[in-house]
Structures are given as C-alpha cells and as structure tokens.
Write a structure and sequence with these properties.
The protein is mainly α. 75% of the residues lie in helices and 0% in strands. The protein has one domain. The C terminus is likely disordered.
C-alpha cells in the first residue's frame, strides 16, 4: 500500500515543479535549485539533473540510510524525475502570473511532500547531503540542511535572477505549512460528536 502513496506523492510533487515552479525558475529546495542553475547555464534537462543529483547523494549516504530506505528514496526520485521529464516540454511557459503560479505550485508541492512524509518516504534532495555532513563533521542535521539550502538558494538567485530568492522563500514557507497540516492530521483524528440525548 505504501508504494501507492509514494507514487502519488512523488507525482504530485513533480507536477507542482514542472507546471508552476520551474517555468518561473522557482526553487523548491536544494536539488531543485541545482537543477535550475544547470538548466540555465547548460540547458541540462530538469529531470536528468534532479535524478543525477539524488542518485549521487543516495550512493554516498547508503551506509547511513540502509538499503531499504535507499531503494525507497530512489524509487520516489525516479517517479519524480520521470513525471518531470514528460511534463516540462509541455509546460515550458508559465501557465499564469507569478502571483498565481507561486502559491498554486507551493500548495501542490506541499501536498506531494506531505503525502511522502506521512507514508514514511523521503524525497531525497539535500537532506541526504546534510546527513552525510552531520555524521562526518558532527554538525546538527537541521542547521546543516539550512546552510546547504541557503547557499544553493543564493547561488540560484545570482545565476538566474535575484528575485527567485524571495520567490523560493515564499514557496518553502507555504509548502512547509501544508506539510505540517498533513502531518498533524495523523495525530489529531476527527472524532464524531456524540448524538444529543433524547
């Protein structure tokens, strides 16, 4: 059953990036930021760079993830990359203005990532690099991930457009709220109200 949620979450995440975020060069995270820069500088397809970056990270972090977690993460990354491969040629132009596409993409991205997290899957990305560095240098994973994503975000803004930094921050803020909402739903089930006594 988990693989259905993994597939759905990865597909939703990929659709958000392909349709709403990539046409505006908005980064949804570290790996996406690298893909945007490579596409801008070398015209590297988004799908190829997303898959390649994650594959390298997963191989490097294999001993910390374990083969099951690594295989699950690689499956989610492969689904994401495949969907992106087919959608980006169709949605190479923004469907609407930045003020519509940004919240729509962030919302959809948060739903996809929330489904993955809730089903115990990982979307890969720079959290793997943070894990490696935290083990190697004895740094806290959260702070390490923040520094990595910040550096990539600033680099993307310098290479592509400085405005993308603000767009990416807004995207991640919206997406994080959606993820938190989906996660909290698992711990606060809706309870039926008791019928009033006659």
């Amino acid at each position: 059953m988990n693989i259905l949620f993994w597939t759905a979450g990865a597909a939703i995440q990929a659709a958000a990036m392909s349709i709403f975020l990539f046409p505006h060069a908005i980064s949804s995270g570290g790996a996406a930021g690298i893909s945007i820069m490579l596409n801008h500088l070398l015209q590297t397809p988004y799908a190829a760079s997303i898959w390649g970056v994650n594959a390298i990270m997963i191989v490097l972090a294999f001993k910390w993830l374990g083969w099951k977690a690594a295989a699950g993460t690689m499956y989610c990354v492969s689904v994401t990359a495949t969907i992106i491969h087919f959608l980006t040629p169709v949605f190479f132009l923004p469907p609407s203005t930045i003020w519509i596409d940004l919240p729509a993409g962030a919302l959809l991205f948060g739903v996809g990532l929330g489904v993955l997290f809730k089903s115990g899957a990982s979307s890969g990305g720079m959290d793997i690099a943070a894990l490696i560095l935290s083990k190697w240098r004895n740094w806290t994973p959260g702070r390490t991930l923040f520094y990595i994503n910040t550096i990539i975000l600033i680099a993307t803004g310098i290479v592509v457009d400085i405005k993308t930094i603000l767009y990416a921050i807004a995207c991640q803020w919206i997406a994080s709220r959606v993820i938190d909402f989906i996660q909290s739903a698992a711990f606060h089930p809706v309870q039926k109200k008791a019928l009033p006594k006659q």
